[in-house]
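Batch 3, record 17
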Amino acid sequence: MTTNQEEVKLLGATGSPFVCRVQIALKLKEIEYKFVEENLVNKSELLLKYNPIYKKVPVFVHNDKPIIESLVILEYIDEIWKQNPILPSDPYQRSLARFWSKFIDDKIVLASSKSVFTIDEKEREKHIEESTEALQILENELKGKFFGGEEINFVDIAAVFIAFWIPLVQDIADLQLFTDEKFPKLYNWSQEFLNHPVVKQNLPPRDPLFAFFKARYDGLLAASK
Amino acid sequence: MADEVILLDFWLSPFGSRIRIALAEKGIKYEYIEEDLRKNKSSLLLQMNPVHKKIPVLIHNGKPIAESLIAVQYIDEVWNDKSPLLPSDPYERSHARFWADYVDKKIYEVGRKLYTKKGEEQEAGKKELIEVFKLLEQELGDKTYFGGDKLGFVDIAFIPFYTWFKTYETFGNINIEKECPKILSWAKRCIKIESVSKSLPDQDKVYDFIVEIRKKLGIE
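Prediction for the assembled complex:
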């Protein structure tokens, strides 16, 4: 289980929900790795070399071979390190896990961020409506304690954005997008998820992240005036 | 128990084509059900894909799988006795997934701008599409297929868009062969493969359909 630290590297940024997904998966499988904090304003040569197409984090490097896109990285990690699997072994269940993780990425991440970081009121309302609809679909889908049943899986890890980032940014705009009244099952899930021993130790510190997003929000407001 | 495989699809869809190619590569018999997207959505579609209400949907023994690339992976995992579509090496697999996802994110939406927009938006779309094709050309390199010497996941993800080239070129006023000759030669190699050629619609039929769409949308 323990690997030579030099072989496994994660290029990331504290505060990125996509990096967080990878960190949770690595921790769950007890894989030792070297974390390289990237400055996203001043991107390193290493980052640009490993991810010339998107120039983004996370980049997972295993034996000098880079893998990008968080969900692709999660699948790779699950295939290489078989302990504590995050994807089901049954092909149909796997296709469902992939479907819901893609749903989160396509329908919730951007729409919910734009529900906060949009100045135009009509546009913002549109994003709020989209996010609410998508969250409701996910709420209806949740059957057990976690999307993975009794244990967290691929979908739960992908959904860390909902559990940690949405509540944080909605506070900035005083938006009631994700609440326990609107989505009781999903809210309950988020509390269980955030308290999971592995997840808990891999979340970024809340205050500096809040400050970062608040500054962005304030900047947006100022620019629109 | 005999496998029951159904594909709910629309002849024009490049996404549906991907699943058709995968099924053909594996020699899987299936029932093709045409969902006419110009009419109201069928109750079968709404039942099988209640979340997105879109085709294609692969239905295996009553269980629906939506999203074409997810369905192709499913097919590869279930019918794993012949014609592997994804590489066996995990790193190569992650590489294939990345590029298939890139094709998924970039081509359809950007290509759409070429035949639905005008002016600046269309120009931006043209530029972006060529950039995307050039990047894919780079990724292809000197390989016969993206999958190496056999058709693979990325080939399957990308080749259906070949039937849209006439549409992109005519409305976008671009010359894909001139800009990305390797992509053209790759595409021509792919369509020589029976599972590909019998799964793709005719390029002219696609073009005619888009002409109709543009008329309906009032685009001159």
